[in-house]
Design a protein that fits this description.
Layout lengths: L5 E5 L5 H4 L2 H4 L4 E5 L1 H10 L4 E5 L1 H5 L3 E11 L6 E5 L8 E5 L4 H14 L4 E5 L12 E5 L1 H4 L8 E4 H9 L3 E9 L9 H17 L1 H12 L3 H11 L1 E3 L2 H16 L20
Parallel strand pairs: 1-2, 1-3, 6-7, 6-8
Antiparallel strand pairs: 3-10, 4-10, 4-11, 5-8, 5-9
Helix pairs in contact: 5-7, 9-10
């Protein structure tokens, strides 16, 4: 290799147990932290080799592969992916979408179509913008800014993890570790990379008390809220149920025209576990 392995890690609280020891586990790598949508764009450009990327990209990009069973998902309320309504869901005509997201922007549209029967006009919701800057009937917010109570009153709020799990009766996965298909040609050991990412997850979960203490202080959030969020709301293992959940998500996205024609809707063949 003539340059370091370039890894993109999500900079939200939800991924802290996955990335807290990344630099130590892979000291030869250059680690970049950013929001999920930007990491996906960097992986697409070839600026990154590996990224904790939005799961929707697995359907869009057949050359990308899952490299680890470490992921960010939920089996019920997720707390940090919310749809805030100024009008009742069945009356929503405009939807503002958090620019940090790719997976959740599709999830929001699926659930609005399936549950409320609406296909609203879409507008962007910039990362640093206050809620008051958007006049949309509904606003999708993700990540750290979704955890705190909103700064204005809304008529209804959906936790999209909870809505998906109740509606589909399947878990949901927001992000997985993905690699570009050309990584092996550069002499990178995929087995070693997979082992390091799994070890980071396992060690991070083993020292959640320290992570909770540090993150609650730096973010100004109550320690019990951070602890509950990381321990109870999030699920960090990608297994058979998560695969079924993602495939159902891809199928519904395709049915509503939210994926390009010919997108891959099954993920068995893209997982390195199938080698």
């Amino acid at each position: 290799m003539n340059r370091p392995l370039r890894i993109g890690a999500v900079n939200y609280l939800n991924s802290r147990p996955l990335v807290a020891g990344l630099e130590q586990a892979l000291p030869e790598a250059a680690v970049v932290y950013d929001v999920p949508s930007r990491l996906a764009a960097a992986l697409e450009r070839g600026d990154l080799d590996v990224a904790l990327a939005p799961c929707i990209e697995l359907a869009r990009r057949p050359e990308w592969h899952i490299i680890s069973d470490a992921c960010v998902g939920c089996r019920g309320p997720v707390l940090s992916v919310k749809l805030l309504f100024r009008r009742p869901p069945a009356e929503v005509a405009t939807l503002a979408l958090d620019e940090g997201s790719r997976t959740s922007v599709v999830l929001a549209q699926i659930l609005l179509a399936e549950i409320a029967g609406v296909r609203p006009r879409l507008t962007p919701f910039p990362l640093e913008a206050p809620l008051s800057s958007s006049s949309a009937d509904a606003i999708l917010v993700i990540g750290d800014r979704a955890i705190a109570p909103p700064s204005e009153e809304f008529v209804e709020s959906w936790d999209l993890g909870d809505r998906w799990c109740r509606w589909s009766e399947l878990p949901f996965t927001f992000a997985t570790w993905m690699v570009r298909g050309d990584l092996a040609a550069r002499g990178v050991s995929w087995d070693r990379l997979e082992e390091a990412l799994v070890r980071c997850r396992d060690e991070g979960l083993a020292r959640l008390d320290a992570i909770v203490a540090a993150e609650s202080k730096s973010m100004g959030l109550p320690a019990d809220l951070v602890d509950r969020y990381l321990r109870r709301h999030l699920h960090y293992y990608f297994g058979a149920g998560q695969r079924r959940g993602l495939e159902h998500y891809f199928e519904r996205a395709a049915a509503w025209g939210l994926l390009p024609r010919g997108s891959r809707l099954k993920i068995d063949d893209c997982s390195l576990w199938s080698r």
